[in-house]
Amino acid sequence: MAATRPSTPLGVNHLVLNVRDMEVSHRFYTEVLGYEQVGVAGDAIPLTMRFYSTHGKHHDIALVEQDRPDAAPADWHLMGTGGRLNHIAIAYPDREAFLAQLRHLRACGVPFRARGDHGMTHSVYINDPDGNGIEVLYEIPREVWEGDIDAALNYYKPLPTEGEASLEDDAHYKRFGGD
Ligand SMILES: [Fe+2]
Questions:
Q1: Is beta strand 49-53 parallel, antiparallel or unpaired with respect to 36-40?
Q2: Between residues 45 and 101, which one has the greater pLDDT?
Q3: Has this prediction a pTM greater than 0.70?
Q4: How far apart are CA 151 and CA 98, in angstroms?
Q5: What is the Cα–Cα distance from 176 to 78, expressed in whole angstroms?
Q6: Up-side HSE of residue 6: CA atoms within 13 Å toward CB?
Q7: Within a domain: residue 177?
Q8: How many domains does the chain have?
Q9: What is the CATH number of the domain that holds 114?
Q10: How many whole angstroms separate alpha carbon 118 and alpha carbon 137?
Q11: Is residue 152 part of a domain?
Q12: In sequence order, which residues have a C-beta less than 8 Å from that of residue 76 and are 6 or more positions away?
Protein backbone atom coordinates (compact mmCIF):
# COMPACT_ATOMS: atom_id res chain seq x y z
CA MET A 1 0.00 0.00 0.00
CA ALA A 2 1.20 3.49 -0.80
CA ALA A 3 1.87 5.78 2.16
CA THR A 4 -0.01 8.55 0.35
CA ARG A 5 -3.77 8.83 -0.17
CA PRO A 6 -5.67 9.68 -3.34
CA SER A 7 -7.30 13.07 -3.67
CA THR A 8 -11.07 12.95 -4.15
CA PRO A 9 -11.97 13.61 -7.81
CA LEU A 10 -14.36 16.39 -8.72
CA GLY A 11 -15.68 14.19 -11.52
CA VAL A 12 -15.33 13.51 -15.23
CA ASN A 13 -14.16 16.66 -17.01
CA HIS A 14 -14.29 15.57 -20.64
CA LEU A 15 -14.25 12.53 -22.89
CA VAL A 16 -12.25 12.04 -26.08
CA LEU A 17 -13.37 9.50 -28.65
CA ASN A 18 -11.58 8.05 -31.67
CA VAL A 19 -13.85 8.24 -34.72
CA ARG A 20 -13.56 6.78 -38.21
CA ASP A 21 -14.97 9.72 -40.16
CA MET A 22 -14.81 13.23 -38.68
CA GLU A 23 -17.54 14.70 -40.88
CA VAL A 24 -20.01 11.92 -40.10
CA SER A 25 -19.32 12.17 -36.37
CA HIS A 26 -19.35 15.98 -36.45
CA ARG A 27 -22.87 15.94 -37.88
CA PHE A 28 -23.97 13.41 -35.26
CA TYR A 29 -22.63 15.34 -32.27
CA THR A 30 -23.93 18.70 -33.53
CA GLU A 31 -27.11 18.03 -35.53
CA VAL A 32 -28.30 14.93 -33.65
CA LEU A 33 -27.05 15.57 -30.11
CA GLY A 34 -26.99 19.37 -30.15
CA TYR A 35 -23.37 20.09 -29.26
CA GLU A 36 -21.56 23.19 -30.52
CA GLN A 37 -18.06 22.98 -31.99
CA VAL A 38 -15.85 25.37 -30.01
CA GLY A 39 -12.41 24.53 -31.32
CA VAL A 40 -10.40 22.67 -33.93
CA ALA A 41 -6.85 21.39 -33.67
CA GLY A 42 -4.36 23.51 -35.59
CA ASP A 43 -0.65 23.12 -36.27
CA ALA A 44 0.27 22.57 -32.62
CA ILE A 45 -1.73 19.36 -32.52
CA PRO A 46 -0.86 17.09 -35.47
CA LEU A 47 -4.25 15.42 -35.55
CA THR A 48 -7.66 15.77 -37.10
CA MET A 49 -9.34 16.77 -33.86
CA ARG A 50 -12.37 18.88 -32.97
CA PHE A 51 -13.71 20.07 -29.63
CA TYR A 52 -17.35 20.33 -28.60
CA SER A 53 -18.95 22.02 -25.67
CA THR A 54 -22.02 23.34 -23.98
CA HIS A 55 -22.71 25.77 -21.13
CA GLY A 56 -19.42 27.62 -21.61
CA LYS A 57 -17.09 24.71 -20.86
CA HIS A 58 -13.76 24.62 -22.75
CA HIS A 59 -14.66 21.17 -24.02
CA ASP A 60 -17.08 18.47 -23.01
CA ILE A 61 -16.36 15.99 -25.80
CA ALA A 62 -13.55 15.91 -28.36
CA LEU A 63 -13.24 13.73 -31.44
CA VAL A 64 -10.03 12.41 -32.98
CA GLU A 65 -10.17 10.95 -36.48
CA GLN A 66 -8.15 7.76 -36.44
CA ASP A 67 -8.09 5.18 -39.18
CA ARG A 68 -6.30 2.73 -36.92
CA PRO A 69 -7.68 2.90 -33.39
CA ASP A 70 -5.53 -0.14 -32.51
CA ALA A 71 -2.31 1.69 -33.41
CA ALA A 72 0.34 1.67 -30.71
CA PRO A 73 -0.05 4.83 -28.64
CA ALA A 74 2.91 7.16 -29.04
CA ASP A 75 2.01 10.07 -26.78
CA TRP A 76 -0.97 11.89 -25.33
CA HIS A 77 -2.52 12.29 -28.77
CA LEU A 78 -3.10 8.58 -29.08
CA MET A 79 -4.16 7.39 -25.69
CA GLY A 80 -5.43 3.94 -24.88
CA THR A 81 -4.54 0.60 -26.39
CA GLY A 82 -7.30 0.47 -28.92
CA GLY A 83 -10.98 0.85 -29.51
CA ARG A 84 -13.00 4.00 -29.65
CA LEU A 85 -12.10 5.50 -26.30
CA ASN A 86 -9.16 7.89 -26.61
CA HIS A 87 -9.21 9.08 -23.01
CA ILE A 88 -11.37 10.05 -20.06
CA ALA A 89 -10.30 13.20 -18.25
CA ILE A 90 -10.86 13.19 -14.50
CA ALA A 91 -10.72 16.54 -12.73
CA TYR A 92 -9.39 17.12 -9.22
CA PRO A 93 -10.83 20.10 -7.36
CA ASP A 94 -7.80 22.38 -7.25
CA ARG A 95 -4.05 22.67 -7.68
CA GLU A 96 -3.29 21.30 -4.21
CA ALA A 97 -5.46 18.22 -4.75
CA PHE A 98 -3.82 17.72 -8.16
CA LEU A 99 -0.30 17.94 -6.71
CA ALA A 100 -1.24 15.48 -3.96
CA GLN A 101 -2.68 13.19 -6.62
CA LEU A 102 0.55 13.33 -8.64
CA ARG A 103 2.48 12.26 -5.56
CA HIS A 104 -0.01 9.48 -4.91
CA LEU A 105 0.22 8.20 -8.49
CA ARG A 106 4.01 8.17 -8.19
CA ALA A 107 3.82 6.34 -4.83
CA CYS A 108 1.52 3.77 -6.45
CA GLY A 109 4.08 3.21 -9.22
CA VAL A 110 1.83 4.50 -12.01
CA PRO A 111 3.98 5.74 -14.94
CA PHE A 112 3.29 9.24 -16.29
CA ARG A 113 2.86 8.63 -20.02
CA ALA A 114 2.84 12.35 -20.75
CA ARG A 115 2.30 15.55 -18.86
CA GLY A 116 1.57 19.03 -20.04
CA ASP A 117 0.11 22.50 -19.71
CA HIS A 118 -3.04 22.55 -21.88
CA GLY A 119 -3.88 26.20 -21.42
CA MET A 120 -7.19 25.48 -19.69
CA THR A 121 -5.93 22.50 -17.68
CA HIS A 122 -2.70 21.09 -16.28
CA SER A 123 -2.73 17.39 -17.03
CA VAL A 124 -0.92 14.10 -16.61
CA TYR A 125 -1.75 11.11 -18.80
CA ILE A 126 -1.74 7.58 -17.41
CA ASN A 127 -3.27 4.22 -18.31
CA ASP A 128 -5.69 2.19 -16.22
CA PRO A 129 -4.94 -1.56 -15.81
CA ASP A 130 -6.67 -2.32 -19.11
CA GLY A 131 -4.75 0.32 -21.02
CA ASN A 132 -7.57 2.87 -21.17
CA GLY A 133 -6.28 6.42 -21.41
CA ILE A 134 -6.86 8.51 -18.30
CA GLU A 135 -6.08 12.23 -18.07
CA VAL A 136 -5.73 13.50 -14.50
CA LEU A 137 -6.14 17.27 -14.41
CA TYR A 138 -7.10 20.42 -12.60
CA GLU A 139 -8.77 23.33 -14.31
CA ILE A 140 -7.02 26.66 -14.65
CA PRO A 141 -9.28 29.56 -13.53
CA ARG A 142 -11.67 30.34 -16.39
CA GLU A 143 -10.71 34.02 -16.66
CA VAL A 144 -7.33 32.78 -17.96
CA TRP A 145 -8.76 30.93 -20.98
CA GLU A 146 -12.33 32.08 -21.61
CA GLY A 147 -11.17 35.01 -23.80
CA ASP A 148 -10.05 32.62 -26.55
CA ILE A 149 -11.06 29.02 -25.98
CA ASP A 150 -9.84 27.85 -29.39
CA ALA A 151 -6.35 29.26 -28.71
CA ALA A 152 -6.27 27.61 -25.28
CA LEU A 153 -7.40 24.29 -26.77
CA ASN A 154 -4.53 24.53 -29.26
CA TYR A 155 -1.89 25.32 -26.65
CA TYR A 156 0.25 22.47 -25.33
CA LYS A 157 3.49 22.73 -23.43
CA PRO A 158 5.03 19.34 -22.55
CA LEU A 159 6.21 18.98 -18.95
CA PRO A 160 8.58 16.49 -17.29
CA THR A 161 7.25 12.98 -16.64
CA GLU A 162 10.03 11.71 -14.38
CA GLY A 163 11.93 12.83 -11.31
CA GLU A 164 11.14 15.63 -8.87
CA ALA A 165 10.27 18.06 -11.68
CA SER A 166 7.35 15.83 -12.66
CA LEU A 167 5.74 16.47 -9.26
CA GLU A 168 5.90 20.25 -9.49
CA ASP A 169 3.38 22.66 -11.02
CA ASP A 170 3.94 26.19 -12.30
CA ALA A 171 1.04 28.47 -11.33
CA HIS A 172 2.13 31.31 -13.66
CA TYR A 173 -0.65 30.69 -16.15
CA LYS A 174 -0.51 31.82 -19.78
CA ARG A 175 -3.51 34.07 -20.54
CA PHE A 176 -5.59 33.64 -23.72
CA GLY A 177 -7.53 36.41 -25.47
CA GLY A 178 -8.00 39.95 -24.23
CA ASP A 179 -4.90 42.03 -23.65
FE1 LIG B 1 -8.17 15.59 -22.71
A1: antiparallel
A2: 101
A3: yes
A4: 24
A5: 26
A6: 11
A7: no
A8: 1
A9: 3.10.180.10
A10: 10
A11: yes
A12: 87, 113, 114, 116, 123, 125, 135
CA of 15 to the centre of ligand 1 (A): 7
Give me ligand 1 centre to Cα 92, in Å: 14
On whether the CB atoms of residues 36 and 54 are closer than 8 A, the answer is: yes
85 C-alpha to ligand 1 centroid (Å): 11
Nearest to 95 by CA among 174, 171, 26, 10: 171
Phi, psi of 151 (to 5 degrees): -65, -40
Q: What is the pLDDT of residues 64-90, one digit of tens each?
A: 887 665 554 555 555 655 678 889 999
pLDDT tens-place string over residues 22-80? 999 999 999 998 999 999 998 877 788 999 999 888 899 999 887 665 554 555 555 65
In a domain, 2, yes or no: no
Residue 156's closest CA among 179, 135, 131? 135
Centre of ligand 1 from the C-alpha of residue 78, in Å: 11
Q: DSSP labels for 40-68? A: E--TTS-S-EEEEESTT-S-SEEEEE-S-
Classify residue 175: in a domain, yes or no: no
